Amino acid sequence: MTVHEIVAYPAPVLLQKAAAVTEAEFGPSLLALISDMAETMYVSNGIGLAAPQIQISKRILVIDVEWPDREDSNLYAIINPEIVDAKGEIVFEEGCLSFPDLTVPVQRHAELTLRAQDPSGKPFEIQADGLLSICIQHEMDHLDGITLVDRARGDHRVELIRQLKEQPWFLPELLPPDVSL
Ligand SMILES: [Zn+2]
Description:
Blueprint: H1 28-43, E1 48-50, E2 60-63, E3 76-87, E4 90-95, E5 103-108, E6 111-117, E7 123-129, H2 130-143, H3 148-151, H4 154-164
Antiparallel strand pairs: 1-2, 2-3, 3-6, 4-5, 6-7
């Protein structure tokens, strides 16, 4: 297994829409990528990772909200996800492996129904609430080029950007010309 480098905001790959995984792409190399993504997430103490965060612009997520309680570890590998139903609202102080050391309150759906493919290509559905629901929505945002900077609102966004500008990993020269913070 290979631990990949996780890119920080605003790496260009984090600001673009990721491509669907095609039928032809299911197979051993996809399974290897998912193993690498899980390992990368675990060594980074994350509870979710989207492929664009390791510079692969594909609609692939790994999520394990039980980590670091590894006895209860429950890894979800999620390909081509779609939210088919959502209800309620929940606000949670979210972090992101692409925004090291920063957190910001974000509003999400409290509950959702997710439809996706598993690593073998088989369709499945899950109902999620609580942290799993939040994490799914956060990671799915990465597949559409949406980050915490886009989700944070009002004073929380102002404060996030203020702290962002102080981070040694933040490279403002990577921001697209039409984005100013
Ligand atoms: Zn993230």
